[in-house]
Amino acid sequence: MARDPYDVIGVARSASADEIKRAFRKKAKALHPDANPNDPKAQDRFAELNNAYELLSDADKRRQFDRGEIDAEGKPRFAGFEGFGGGRPRGGPGAGAGPHGETIFETFSFGRDGFQRGGGRTGGQPGGPPPMDDFFDILSGMTGGTKGGRGRSPFGDDFSAPPSGEDVTLTIKVPFLDAARGSTQRVVLPTGESVDLKIPPGTRDGHRMRLRGKGKPGSLGRPTGDAYVVVAVEPHPAFKADGKDLRLDLPIALDEAILGAKVRAPTLDGEVELTLPAMTSSGKTFRLRGKGLPADSGAGDLYVTVRIVLPEASADLEGFARILKERRKGDPRDGL
């Protein structure tokens, strides 16, 4: 069950829209996955915060939630029913009546054929029957059952409220560069419906997105579930993600390492020229600022580590190596 959006954002129910926005921005900065790269639950907490703000930043949805018409996920729910001890004298005018003065079972009859709907007014839309979702909740509450559960009907028969639609979770594989640069991916839902899903730039492995009302349908008018799409980022032969930073191993020739050179290094935006100083050792890392993954808090960096690739063996190379060996001073492993 989703938590109260006011508690998630950390504001009072009387908070203004500006206060909610300020509190959301402050908390979003602290909970953003980029600021918590080692926290496996950071993505879920950030998604919960976004969902809470989506509800409270919409004036209509906020009023519906405050009145108890929808829950913290924005799904319809039964907020209450006047007439059951709602402040009116028992047995007096209006006792057992809905908000418009009609009785709760006025438009329903019970018999051998089950529930029969009549034409009277009820606590739903003026002039029409109450939503089936509300009606099943009323009966479930009367019989001591829960939503989607079974209870004993006051009419002597077992009553089973039809369940709400189930949420579904599916995983899509996204190529590394498509996730890093942003793309649109076609997703086929369990219902067979195809949806074009926008993958934001900088999306990382395990990112979860929610598609409202795209899950399994409920029975007899009950709410439809949601679909959750989990992104599985496929590995790249060169780039490796490290939070919002990228790491890359760059092969260089022996002569480039000894003499120094200008070499081309790939980035998400294309190749850049990297200057190697003379006598560059294998394993030396160069930092390219802002060439990592895009993020709300600013793009990460690209760390390029050079790896010396020896040429094919030759007499000249062996002779050069023997000269180096004779002239070498000290042991490169001293201090380990």
From TrEMBL:
An annotated GO cellular component: cytoplasm
Region listing for Disordered, in residue ranges: 114-164, 194-221
Q: Which UniProt keywords apply?
A: Chaperone
Ranges of Gly residues composition bias in the record: 116-126
Q: Which Pfam families match?
A: DnaJ, DnaJ_C
The organism of origin for this protein: Phreatobacter cathodiphilus
Q: Where is the J domain?
A: 4-69
Q: Which InterPro entries match?
A: DnaJ_C, DnaJ_domain, DnaJ_domain_CS, HSP40/DnaJ_pept-bd, J_dom_sf
Q: What is this protein called?
A: Molecular chaperone DnaJ
Q: Which GO terms describe its biological process?
A: protein refolding
The transmembrane segments are none
PANTHER family given in the database record:
DNAJ HOMOLOG 1, MITOCHONDRIAL-RELATED
Q: Which GO terms describe its molecular function?
A: unfolded protein binding
